[in-house]
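Tutorial, part two.
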Amino acid sequence: MGLAASAVTAAVVGAALVGRPSGGRAPTPAAPVGDAPFDVDIARGAFVHGVIDYDPYSDTTAMAAASDAVVVGTVVRVRDARVPQPGGTAGSRWDTVLVELRVDRVASGTARWQVDGRIIIEVQRPGATLEEQRAALPSGTRMVAYLDSAQDFLDVPGGAVAFSRPVGVQAVTVQGSDGGPLVRPLLGQTEDADLDDALPGGAAIGF
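Running the prediction step on this input gives:
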């Protein structure tokens, strides 16, 4: 899809996942002491620079069908990532960050690569610094993510890491730990809705 080249890296083929999950909303954790509070404007602007050209999913059900998993989780931290570029030499760098997410609920599919209930999500950061993206996704930020499983990093500080990638720029929706507007950071959009509306079958998707 065109979206993969512009805002998130293309991922492996996903299993067909449809339907709205049962059960209530995941508990809302408080941000750890010392973290700056979630800021809608910072979250909206930290991942988007310039015009985005992508092929949108028509709805959340279609996006789930292109995903290996849909997860509801809580951001633990954002850290730098280093991966070899295709055809490049070991140690060459992409501008990406790793979002460590504690999985509160798997809404659809199977979330692979969990370690102690956490997964790693690779997100591109066009034009933004690591500090800006840490400020955009402080610890405690709630997230719904539509993910494809990927592969081990070959060059990450501390060793290889198994990770997932969003299936598109519509695939990540976040909200502050105290509620408030939804933010789609990869699109630079906000919406007054509940985070559960971003789950499969919900109407919060963004275009």
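The first helix runs from residue 2 to 6. In part three we will examine how such features are distributed along the chain.
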